[in-house]
Amino acid sequence: MSRSVFITGGNRGIGLAIAKAMAQDGDRVAVTYRSGEPPAGLLGVRCDVTDSEQVDAAFKQVEAEHGPVEVLVANAGITRDNLLIRMAEDDFSSVIDTNLTSAYRVAKRASRGMLRARHGRMIFISSAVALRGDKGQANYAAAKAGLIGFARSLAHEFGSRGVTFNVIAPGLTATDMTAALPETRMAELCEEIPLGRAAQPEEIAAAVRFLASREASYITGAVLPVDGGAGMGH
């Protein structure tokens, strides 16, 4: 049965791959974007996820056109990399707000309809960096690690109401961001991965599709690494 799916940051990279995969399954998919044009064939909702009023307006639009959100994928994120000694406080707080606090905003808003329906799926896109850390990414790692504690707390709160909360932890993925890296740097990063390559966004999307599926109805509070083995032992 077609479901109402809402994906934050779904206009490019991993978010767009997730949106396309779920649309191919017949779901009614809406994505947020901040600039440019929305992806063709999807309901694009202009929204800054750091603004609670814009988040609420986005949900109202999606609910009006697609019905109450049944699957939420919190994917929106930014990076502001730097070593701690050089990191401005705004670079730390903006990453926390966009990558972590925005998940609180959208999860709280989506929970209204899911509690009434006594059913729902929330999936948070974290990172392998959340589990192992990386130099120059203290802000990003802190935000992505926060998603794990957030999701697991909500799994306890909402479990009796049929709503599941799970986390995907992607590793190095071939997106516009990694495309900007020098070939030598990409080669170095791939050498650290047991499978020897970056993930394709569609491989992350496949994991999201599973956790959103009926087959995953007894999985909640889980962290699923999709990182080619890079995070083993963390």
From TrEMBL:
SMART domains: PKS_KR. This is Ketoreductase domain-containing protein. PANTHER family: 3-OXOACYL-(ACYL-CARRIER-PROTEIN) REDUCTASE, 3-OXOACYL-[ACYL-CARRIER-PROTEIN] REDUCTASE FABG. Residues 3-173 form the Ketoreductase domain. Keywords: Oxidoreductase. The keyword Oxidoreductase applies. SUPFAM superfamilies: NAD(P)-binding Rossmann-fold domains. Gene3D superfamilies: NAD(P)-binding Rossmann-like Domain. Belongs to the short-chain dehydrogenases/reductases (SDR) family. GO terms for biological process: monocarboxylic acid metabolic process. It comes from the Bacteria. InterPro entries: KR_dom, NAD(P)-bd_dom_sf, Sc_DH/Rdtase_CS, SDR, SDR_fam. GO terms for molecular function: oxidoreductase activity.
